[in-house]
Design goal:
4 domains; 422 residues; Helicase, Ruva Protein, domain 3; extended; alpha/beta; 20 helices; two-stranded parallel ribbon; Rossmann fold; Zinc Finger, Delta Prime, domain 3; 5-stranded parallel beta sheet
């Protein structure tokens, strides 16, 4: 390997002693490390941000276990490539099949892996920056152990930097003067590979010097500026929209605007932001302020028509309105409770008065008999039971504690007294 090879590749660990970080799964005595050292490796999904050692761990696992190693990238591999590897004869231990960016495989490609993984023809190691719960088929996910790899902190970045300047052959003739590392670490964003790439750029900018000075000023000058760390299709996508939604739910318009601005400057689809606000308007505000759903729905329609940059104003207005609106998740809780009850009681019959009676026979056997048409009664209310007899009196919707739903509660209480006597 020569100096033309990128620094990150030159320093790729080959064993546990060289591997930096992920002590929570690879420290001495940890289950994954014991499994690797015993050559009893399960199929797994490695989930974590870029540059924290997912590919390195797969390669190192193959080295330690002495198994054949096959690597595919989900960007350009297809079902044919998968089947070619899966159909190859294996020895005593199955080969390692490493699939980078496995979240980019579609359903049929992921399904093609099921048989080989289940039969043990290969040990699958999939790497993803996205939440596998969203992007990996449930059937495949159930056959794999998920390991979460963490972004590098100062400790890991410092160790990686020290290893680079003390052990890399291309840097061996240079003298390093480390004045400060704040900018280098900040720009890396916890990405080890990015840290090494930045370091290499800074070193190469001083090729005429025998002494390499690392300072915040030099790093900022060479790198110029930090690119916003947001991947519209990656884990940051989910983390930031989560922070945005939770800020609105928590009635903090300032935080909501900040997280929304992070998405806007990164070029997020305005329709995606608006769609999530529409869901929130029902889930977290609901009948405390029914206008919120109308507002969010109109926002979604408007941003589709006009796009950026003007749609940012509509998004801002809606986010502020939702954040400052009274909150209630009563409707959300009610439907989940109703679904849970329905799953257990799907065998119960619809009461005869509530059944449709389109034919004479149905009417003769009692369908629709004794049904009371509410509009024929005072206050549009007639005392009758609308649930199966076994569920009579079941209360699924509990109004929230806000002005509008307190009024709903008073009305329901009056009706419940009529319906059920309480």
């Amino acid at each position: 390997m020569n100096s033309a090879t990128p620094l990150a590749e030159r320093l790729r660990p080959r064993n546990f002693d060289e591997y930096i970080g992920q002590e929570h799964i690879l420290g001495k005595g940890k289950p994954l490390r014991r499994a690797i050292e015993s050559n009893l490796v399960p199929s797994m999904i490695l989930w974590g941000p870029p540059g924290v050692g997912k590919t390195t761990l797969a390669l190192m696992l193959s080295e330690v276990t002495k198994r054949p190693f096959h690597s595919l990238s989900a960007i350009n591999a297809g079902v044919k490539d998968l089947r070619e590897i899966l159909n190859r004869p294996s020895g005593l231990f199955p080969p390692i099949l490493f699939i980078d960016e496995i979240h980019r495989f579609n359903k049929s490609q992921q399904d093609a892996l099921l048989g080989g993984v289940e039969k043990g023809n290969v040990t699958l190691i999939g790497a993803t920056t996205e939440n596998p719960s969203f992007e990996v088929n449930a059937a495949l996910l159930s056959r794999c152990q998920v390991y979460i790899l963490e972004g590098f902190g100062t400790k890991e970045l410092s160790a990686l930097l020290n290893r680079a300047i003390t052990q890399d052959v291309a840097f061996s003739k240079l003298k390093f003067d480390i004045k400060s590392t704040d900018s280098l670490f900040r720009l890396s964003g916890g990405d080890g590979r990015k840290l090494l790439n930045l370091l290499e750029i800074v070193v190469n900018s001083q090729t005429t010097e025998e002494e390499v000075v690392i300072s915040d000023e030099l790093v900022d000058e060479v790198i110029q500026k930090n690119i916003a760390r947001y991947d519209k299709s990656g884990e940051q996508h989910y983390d930031i929209i989560s922070a945005f939604i939770k800020s609105i739910r928590g009635s903090d318009p300032n935080a909501a605007l900040y997280w929304m601005a992070r998405m806007i400057v990164a070029g997020e689809d305005p329709g995606f932001i608006a769609r999530r606000m529409l869901i929130l308007a029902s889930e977290d505000i609901g009948n405390a302020n029914p206008t919120a759903v109308i507002m969010a729905n109109n926002c979604m329609d408007a941003v589709k028509k006009i796009g950026y940059p003007e749609s940012r104003i509509i998004l801002s207005q809606t986010a502020i309105y939702l954040a400052t609106s009274p909150k209630s998740n009563a409707s959300y809780l009610a439907i989940d409770k109703a679904i849970a009850v329905a799953e257990k009681t799907a065998h119960l019959s619809v009461p005869l008065p509530l059944r449709n009676a389109p034919t004479k026979l149905m009417k003769e056997i009692g369908y629709g008999k004794n049904y009371q048409y509410s509009h024929n009664y005072e206050g549009n209310f007639a005392k009758q039971n609308f649930l199966p007899e076994e569920l009579k009196g079941e209360k699924l919707y509990e109004p929230g504690n806000n002005v509008r739903e307190n009024e709903i509660r008073r009305n329901l209480q009056k009706w419940w007294e009529e319906w059920y006597g309480y």
